Amino acid sequence: MRCIAMILGMTLAAGTASALDFAAVRLAVYDRGESMYGDEFLAANEGVIDYIATLRRPTDRWDRIIYNCSVKERSIEPYVVQTNGTDPFTAYVPITTVYDIKDCVEAAN
Questions:
Q1: pTM
Q2: Helix/strand/coil (H, E, C) string of the chain?
């Protein structure tokens, strides 16, 4: 059953990626992390993780390197309810998923 769910999820991710167009974005790379539009993002597959791992990273903790990249991305804002305690908290949480990334070029500072 777990295998079927994994295959279905991979098929859905592949289908979603093929329906998206590449868009130009600025990717900030830190010594321990990456961000787009100032927010973290989810990598949909190992290919995205492997590509980002090839990018040059700064050695100083507070520095960053900006790249101009082409990505296939999708943003959603699911409605989340926190129910601990007596006062429930509700909010929309923005999540950006990157399905493909290519052609990253270091931007001039």
A1: 0.73
A2: CHHHHHHHHHHHHHHHHHHCCCEEEEEEEECCEEEECCECCEECCHHHHHHHHCCCCCCCCCCCEEEEEEEEEEEECCEEEECCCCCCEEEECCEEEEEEEEEEEECCC
